[in-house]
Amino acid sequence: MAMFTETPSLKGAVGLIQTISVNKLQLVLKRLVENFHTQDEAAFSEEEVNKLCSSFKMAKEDVDLVLTTCKFFLSQAAYHNSKPGAFAKHLASIGMDQDRCMVFHEVWDESGKSINSLLRQKSMAVNQLETINWQLSLQIAQKSKTKQKTPRAVFELGIKDSSKQEITLLIFANTANVEA
User: Fold this and answer.
1) What pLDDT sits at residue 20?
2) pTM over 0.85
3) What residue spans define the domains of the chain?
4) For 69-85, what is each residue's pLDDT tens digit?
5) Higher pLDDT, 157 or 45
6) How would DSSP label each residue in the chain?
């Protein structure tokens, strides 16, 4: 199964990555790995991106495409829990040269396990279920009805809101009348 779908945008990004020297690419990848856990923050400041533009001799849009694509490659390797060798083969299959594949291989070999463990600890959901309590009762009769079976279930769900770190309790009651 292919890890990457070859699109014109991805081909263009790979072409741009191949113009970057191996040493510079390795430094960029290590920086992306360092900031991998911060999804909202950029790995490079505006000033640093401008320096990369002059260093790579690329336009700002091209540098942004290279950074985004490199982070995408690392994210896909993490998602597929890829081994470094398999990751390099997938990169080669979309047209990346052997030297750049080896840089990705080395960086993933050094950092892949830590990225995967970091992502396992991170929750993708805003709310998490912490506790479940339930109670089931059955009402057999009542003054007006002698042959009645009314089950009553109460569920108490403890929800942890990640932004507030508080537990919210939601209570649901379910009743259904069953005549015998």
Assistant:
1) 92
2) no
3) 8-121, 127-179
4) 999 999 899 888 889 99
5) 45
6) --SS---HHHHHHHHHHTTS-HHHHHHHHHHHHHTTT-SSS-SS-HHHHHHHHHHHT--HHHHHHHHHHHHHHHHHHHHTT--HHHHHHHHHHTT--HHHHHHHHHHHHHHHHHHHHHHHHS-SSSEEEEEEEEEEEEE---SS-SSEEEEEEEEEEEEEETTTTEEEEEEEEEE--EE-
